[in-house]
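Predict the 3D structure for this chain.
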Amino acid sequence: MLRTNSPTLGAILALTFATPLLAQTRTPAAPAGNVTRAQVEAQVKQVFDLADTNKDGFMSRAEFAKRMAAVLNRTPPGTAGAPSREQAQKMLNAADAAFNAVDTNHDGKLSRKEAGARALAAFDLMDTNHDGIVTPAEKRAARNGAVPIGPVGPNGPSDESKPRRGG
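Done. Predicted structure below.
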């Protein structure tokens, strides 16, 4: 079962599908610092379409690997801030595991729905008042652990990952 609180896996998924999903953006519908679900959906679509190089509506393992290589090679090996060979290999191994976990129907390719499910589930967990907008206060609460983040399955967060009220 895929858990959103896995730091390595979370970083890989964020870099691959969601960068920068919850960045501070400004639109008429979302004042500074707020992020709407529609913005997250649009970012997922944009990142997915970038990775789907043959435009067949799916991200193959090869397209995923190419996207991961582009992310990992933003800082060339041997330069300041670049991962070591061992770190890069661990990240690639985690990316392969992430691909397998996100490929919920196990067909060897990712649909846009599969690729975006994690980012949308994370958004939904942070949107504690369920108004379709994550505010800076909701982001801080999630960052500070006030919003429990547990297992997220193919149909969204499990009951044990949903915030509990009243203690």
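The longest helix spans residues 85-102.
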